[in-house]
Design a protein that fits this description.
D-amino Acid Aminotransferase, Chain A, domain 1, binds glycine, 424 residues, alpha+beta, Dna Ligase, domain 1, 5-stranded parallel sheet, binds adenosine monophosphate, 9-stranded antiparallel sheet
Length: 424
């Protein structure tokens, strides 16, 4: 199979790394890719959000399967264009991608299918939104309706903060994403991520993970795209997974099919768990980053078998063999991230990475220039370990992170604290 992966982050490096291990993969091309992906694939410059450009490239290069990493190409209709051209694609249609692209749409699906989630209301102008906040009181959550690169959410602990967020959003802080605002009940509990793959009809539960969204130790500082993750998530017991499948995932897949917009691809449910009961925080229509890194570390070559079956509508034929293992990843980011940071600093060395299935440094924002490895993004490297226990996975991940010689980078030293603390 000739395979094209769209994207350039740590998530896409992990997907490429897993796909490459499967003997079904002949040629692997990544667009645009990064310095890590370059070592295992051909990287090409391509506007991944331009449907015609992607279809043209795939047709010219005899691509059998396109795997879409991030949400933007999906929201731009890249998978629809590929399907129309008869090219297999792993990623939902533009209509189904609204589960991430519009928070209001997801809430409508929840209402129609009886899915447990936060109480909510949607507003198209500031005064009505503010009146609602004054009625409900704090804590309360204010969200820009559209895609805002993960930054359009304000969890307001005071009424003043919430009112300010409304003004910022209608004032254009998130561009077009903020022309409509969703205001939600604040949910208490423990957050976890749950991933399933669907071919529109069948559903394969893929795994659980927990992310660390805040920039600094102790879950302090600004929200980021994610500073580290581990899999599995202890809070996702068999019983909680069962309830999540019955109460959230199956009703969603059924409702999307009923509307004539079946969901084909990976569905990422952000959950809030309290007293064993899951509620939906949000959907993403792609793998998480850095959650994909820990899932791929555990899934390996099987990823391509799952995607192959899902894109041929025969997901019921596959089973995944999970080892009794754990994975943990530590994100190395540029100092200053998620605010302003310097670009183009040199990563002097990555240290020795043992060549086994328990150690891997995935690349995110990296580029190789004349033999030098440069940091060109906010999140730059993901030091990832796998082990029989979470402690072992963590030790391996941190041993790798410590060997990276990059003075302009930083990482959190407490990834995994919640799960490890749980064991007391
Ligand atoms: P989202 O972009 O919707 O995932 O929101 C970002 C983060 O805000 C989530 O991961 C949660 O930590 C938090 N959040 C979002 N909605 C709620 C809610 N209704 N109650 C509590 N926390 C929330
Ligand atoms: N790590 C969170 C996300 O990918 O949305």
């Amino acid at each position: 199979m000739n395979i094209l992966i769209l994207g350039s982050g740590g998530r896409e490096h992990a997907l490429a790394w897993a796909v490459r291990q499967n003997p079904k993969c002949d040629r692997l091309i990544c667009a645009p890719g990064n310095a890590g992906m370059e070592e295992i694939a051909d990287c090409v410059a391509l506007d991944a959000e331009n449907p015609e450009e992607v279809v043209g490239f795939a047709a010219r290069n005899a691509i059998d399967l396109v795997i879409v990493g991030p949400e933007a190409p999906l929201a731009a209709g890249v998978s629809d264009a590929l399907r129309a051209a008869g090219i297999r694609v792993f990623g939902p249609s533009q209509a189904a991608a609204r589960l991430e692209a519009s928070k209001g749409f997801t809430k409508e699906i929840c209402a129609a299918a009886g899915i447990p989630t936060a109480r909510w209301a949607r507003f198209d102008e500031a005064e009505a939104a503010k009146a609602h906040i004054r009625r409900e009181g704090a804590p309360i959550v204010v969200k820009a309706d559209g895609l805002a690169a993960g930054k359009g959410v304000v969890v307001a602990m005071t009424e003043a903060e919430a009112l300010e967020a409304v003004d910022a959003m209608f004032g254009g802080a998130f561009g077009a994403a903020g022309t409509s605002v969703v205001i939600e009940e604040f949910m208490e509990g423990e957050e976890a991520s749950f991933f399933v793959v669907s071919d529109g009809r069948n559903i394969l539960p893929l795994g659980t993970a927990q992310d660390h969204k805040r920039a600094f130790e102790g879950d302090k500082g600004p929200n980021t795209g994610g500073m580290g993750a581990y899999s599995p998530a202890p809070v996702m017991s068999e019983a909680v997974i069962g309830r999540t499948m019955d109460e959230i995932i199956r009703p969603t897949i059924a409702e999307m099919a009923r509307r004539g917009t079946p969901y084909e691809g990976v569905l990422y449910a952000g959950l809030m768990i309290r007293d064993g009961a899951p509620r939906l925080v949000e959907y993403n229509v792609r793998f998480g980053d850095p959650e994909a890194q820990v899932l791929m570390m555990r899934l390996g070559a099987q990823l391509l078998d799952v995607i192959d079956a899902a894109t041929e509508g025969r997901l019921e034929e596959v089973t995944v063999n999970w080892a009794d293992d754990h994975a943990l990843t530590v994100v190395l980011a540029a100092k200053g991230y998620p605010g302003a940071y310097e670009k183009g600093t040199e990563i002097r060395s990555l240290g020795p990475v043992p060549e086994d299935s328990n150690h891997m440094i995935f690349h995110a924002g990296t580029r190789r220039e004349g033999g030098r490895l440069l940091a060109v993004g906010g999140r730059v490297l993901n030091a990832t370990g796998r082990g029989r226990t979470l402690e072992e996975a963590r030790e391996r991940a941190y041993a790798l992170a410590e060997t990276v010689d990059w003075p302009e980078g930083f990482f959190r030293r407490d990834i995994g604290w919640r799960a490890l603390g749980r064991r007391g």
